[in-house]
Amino acid sequence: MSSARQAVVSGIEARAAGAGIVLDVEQQRLVARLADLAPRRSWPGRRAPAPRGLYVHGSAGRGKSWLANAFYDASPSPKVRVHFHSFFEELHRRAHEHRDNPAALTQAIADVLGDSDLLYFDELHVHDSGDARLLTRLLEYVFARQITVLATSNYAPHDLLPNPIWHHIFEPGIALITAHLDIYHLTGTTDYRADNHSHTAGFASGRWVTSPPPEGLPDRSEHTVLTVGGRRFPVLAEREGQLWVSFTQVCDSPVSTIEYVQWVHQFRTWVITDIPTFDTANAEAQQRFINLVDILVDTDRPTTFVSPHTLPAFLTYATTARPDAFRMASRLHLLRTT
Predict the structure, then answer these.
(1) For residues 133 and 89, is the Cβ–Cβ distance under 8 A?
(2) Which ranges in the chain belong to alpha helices (H)?
(3) pLDDT tens across 122-146, in order?
């Protein structure tokens, strides 16, 4: 085993041991495959070929992102990690900065990736035809430049953009994924998030509660407005780096992931109140809530969810409502419940 490969394996194993995690057989196999992405030694004056990339898919909570993050932290390569929602927000913002450049999108991708030899794309999923086109352009860019790609997803490549009306739009992107990446299905029957009982930090230190928090709900005098890109959004309160917002304000209103991404960087903790069951919320509100949970987990923001319904009651309706609801359900299991 090469020194770079061994360093990656040792780094992942040390991280697991430090967290008290015992990797199952399927996860151990994935560790071995991740180690194959370690940089290769080149002859003097000649660039080594990029390791063949990897697309890891499987059910929610099986450890894909945890292992990929551990690999990413252990890898010595110049690297960049992007998450689905934050990537497209940054790409749109940078493309706007280069709007006078005929190659604005290519320049925006170059800005995001920099001089990276490794791109780690976490939680890859595609439900929008516009996102599909942008993602295809990204794949064309990275493979043309021999950048090693690691992607995690709940979807096998051919199941991306599953809507049959739009699926053909991402077929070129799927062809790029299957041509340039090895496909690895991480199997297993255990959702490790559901078995998680550590509530010490980050999103997992948050709560799902059926009565207002001890500090009390904001009164009318605390109601305020946030401004993003000239648009105004009413919220319940700002309290020393904490955002208080109702489900109606943040999900049942025309709020996009662009605002969510900005707010998670502005506010360290969140409280979301008056969360209904999905059978009483429209499809757009449901999808916004799923997207918001994705972003809160990715940025590891402690969040209190206040609902008249218990978490099991909420999930009874939520898990059948939207394509990515299963991932949201797995992530909400990280919370303490009262």
Answers:
(1) no
(2) 3-18, 25-35, 64-74, 84-97, 104-113, 129-144, 171-180, 247-250, 257-266, 283-298, 311-318, 325-332
(3) 889 888 888 899 999 999 999 999 9
Cα four-point dihedral sign 205, 210, 212, 214: negative
pLDDT digits (tens, 9 = 90+) for 84-108: 778 888 888 888 899 889 899 999 9
List, in order, residues 6 or more apart from 274 with CB less than 8 Å away: 246, 247, 248, 306, 307, 308
pLDDT digits (tens, 9 = 90+) for 312-332: 999 988 776 677 888 898 889
Rounded CA gap, 264 and 301, in Å? 7
Do residues 115 and 142 lie in contact, with contact meaning Cβ atoms separated by under 8 Å? no
Residue whose tokens read 């005098």:
221
* SS3 of residue 253 by DSSP: coil
The whole-angstrom separation of Cα 8 and Cα 32 is 9
**109: helix, coil or strand?**
helix
- Predicted confidence (pLDDT) per residue in 21-78, tens digit: 888 898 999 999 999 887 765 455 555 666 789 999 988 878 898 999 999 998 888 9
Distance between CA atoms of 107 and 279, rounded to whole angstroms? Answer: 43
Alpha carbons 225 and 99: distance in angstroms, whole number:
30
Which is nearest to 8 in space by CA: 208, 136, 148? Answer: 148
Q: CB–CB of 222/319 below 8 Å?
A: no
Residues present in the chain in total: 338
Give the predicted TM-score (pTM) of the model. Answer: 0.79
Confidence of residue 215 (pLDDT cuts 50, 70, 90): confident
Domains of the chain: 3-185 (3.40.50.300), 202-337 (no CATH)
Does residue 82 sit in helix, strand or coil?
A: strand
